[in-house]
Fold this sequence. Notes:
Elements: E1 10-17, E2 22-30, E3 35-45, E4 52-57, E5 62-67, H1 76-89, E6 97-104, E7 115-116, H2 119-127, H3 136-149, E8 155-159, H4 169-172, H5 178-182, H6 192-205, H7 207-210, E9 213-219, E10 223-229, E11 232-236, H8 257-267, H9 271-280, H10 283-288, H11 294-299, H12 303-327, E12 332-336, H13 337-342, H14 344-352, H15 363-367, E13 381-383, H16 388-400
Helix pairs in contact: 1-3, 6-16, 12-14
Adenosine monophosphate binds at residues 220-221, 249, 293-295, 298, 337-339, 342-343, 428-429, 431.
Amino acid sequence: MNVHANLTSGALLVLNSGSSSVKFTVFRVEPEGREITPLFAGQLTGIGTDARLSAKTAAREPIADESWADRDTGSVPVLLPHLISWIERHLPADLPLMAAGHRVVHGGANLHHPERITDDVLAELETLIPLAPLHQPQNVAAIKVLAESRSDLPQVACFDTAFHHAQPAHATTYAIPRHLTEAGIRRYGFHGLSYEYIARQLLATHPDLATGRVVVAHLGNGSSLCAIKDGTSIDTTMGFSVLEGVPMGTRSGGLDPGILIYLMRKFDMDVNDLERLLYHQSGLLGVSGVSNDMRVLLGSSDPHCAEAVDLFCLRVAKEVSALACSMGGIDALVFTAGIGEHSAAVRAGVCAHLEWLGIELDRARNAGDEALISTDASLPVHVMATDEEFMIARHTVDVLTNRGDARHGPAAQIEGASGSGEGCCTAPAQAQET
Ligand code: AMP
């Protein structure tokens, strides 16, 4: 594996690999790795069934929408090299593909920073597969395919868990026997690349808050919240897996563990039944019986849809309060990701439970998805776009140019940030679900 190349200018590929889809963003990097701007982005969906490539430029002009169903067996190892060739054909002639950065869901207890992929790092990532069996295998598979088919491309892994690694033990420890904690059954937290992006943006736009106590609500298909104090993650709602915390599109969020014992005894459910129930049949879909999509629920007159939205808002609000407690107070609340950035109704529903905390929304600002949606007298409530792909690109360049700021939390301002996830070609639909 090539571990010596440095990336100072060229094209950088960011990959977010799932079981049936691979999402990608291609960035231009120049000069000396200081500026990073998106060129185009897309996704290969339906892998294994009816593969299809779609892509758009940074200006959101479509550049591909085609069936790839005829390309062999339709597995990631077969299709990824085709995708790389397609990407290279669409790059400007003076912009060679120089490197790849990967979103990797789990860094475990040892990988706290973005890492250049070596055989040792790859081996460590494989040992973490049992901790995230639905996501980690796909991340590792993509890294291996690239290492074999394009050994000239240096690769960097960026972890969803890394931003949370400095949390105090009382936030990461479950109340279970110590030997189980020592065996790795602890709270890791996820969505770290999103929280890191927000923390860095706060430093650029609201330096007072960047050194304060902020609760960030990342509300999308996968949802979690994070308490960020002085730019560092203090506590978060997802724990050992991406199931803990608030209800999500199809995931339950936290529930009484006694339910699992009961389901196994009473309904003879096995591990696969429980996995299906908790990851794919619960959350907004389970409660509404209609959809996992917040837009559908908000547009429906079915009382079960309204119930699902109400439950979601209350659970999010309760976590805001809990995370404020973890920080000894709160100076601002930030909403981000698909629901957080675009749903005025959900933001209003959440904040209605938080008036006792000094939160009061300005109706017009909230309806307009403005950057500040609270009244002037309120504890500030912000809406910010997240951009995990940009964060991966930034880290990848920093690792490959041996720049230190990838290793020091949000202290460094985002250089060359091309804008928000919404403003560049990284459409909300880009994010692989965690
Ligand atoms: P994400 O996983 O960040 O892409 O977010 C996906 C979620 O955002 C889905 O539940 C969408 O229904 C939701 N979403 C996107 N746009 C809107 C909108 N305008 N109003 C309500 N929910 C939205």
